[in-house]
Amino acid sequence: MKKAVLALFFAVLSCPARADDSLLCLQETARQELKRQIQPNLLSAIALVESGRYSKTYPTGVAWPWTVSADGKGAFYKTKADAIKAVEELQKNGADNIDVGCMQISLKFHPDAFKSVEDAFDPAQNVAYAADFLKRNHADTKSWGLAATRYHSRTAHKAYKYEDKLLDKWKLLAEHGNPAKPTQKAVVHDVSKQKVRELNRAAKMAERKAKAAENDKKIKAGSDEAKQQAAAWRKAKLEAYMAAKRAKIEDEPIFEDVRTKAAP
């Protein structure tokens, strides 16, 4: 990629947010949450993770509609025209791994999502596509938590990291409300998540002890001590499994299953 293009791409990182554009994304996420009966604040939380930037006015931050990411590096552009120009320059210079707009839709993995780059930066179209993708994930998983992490990746370690970021934003929205629609809030109820993690750690510890016992020549296979180690491991695994199962029922798995009324 040419140095001039890189300079153009990263020079806008520090550009100030324009007040008239700062709520465009969150207005659309709030609308789609009602229209598509998506978990309250969930699509908005995804937007804040994907294109979020600091705001002096709103403690939640805002999602910026003129955001472009290429090869893992993102930039906030001042206007829609600037963002379109940046994408066209990136494409001209061979970049194909480009994410755009409020919801950072990948032009590489969703090549048919929009008719044009201009359409891709339309907040209504960008968020509507993301809402449809999230709903398809939910139909497949029956879980808002899994659907949300799959929005980012189906790879486990990437999904876990994304889940933590998402939960932080979702809690902010639950506390302060969506700046574009403050009354549209979800209730945070994620106590079982910590319990599941504690039990998973206990299960791993028991597993390590059981393996150590098997490798210890002083403990014979089939001995009472070896049986006790194995029993402890099985108990820990069962507790972790049951906690995870309860969490899915209660929290889906970290977002309380509260239905919204469809917009008229």
Average per-residue pLDDT, rounded, comes to 79
Query: What gross morphology would you assign?
Result: elongated
At the fold tier of CATH, the topology name of the largest domain is Lysozyme
What is the oligomeric state here? single chain
User: Largest sheet at a glance?
Assistant: 4 strands, antiparallel
- State the end-to-end CA separation: 48 Å
Order of strands, main sheet, comes to 4-3-5-6
What is the percent of helical residues? 55-70%
Count of helical segments?
Answer: 10
Percentage of residues in DSSP E strands: 5-15%
The radius of gyration is 23 Å
The CATH architecture of the largest domain: Orthogonal Bundle
> Which stretches of 5+ consecutive residues score pLDDT under 50?
1-16, 248-254, 256-264
| SS elements, strand count | 6
What's the level 1 CATH class of the largest domain? Mainly Alpha
Structural class estimated from helices and strands: alpha+beta
**Order of SSEs, N→C?**
HHHEEEEHEEHHHHHH
Structurally, the number of domains stands at: 2
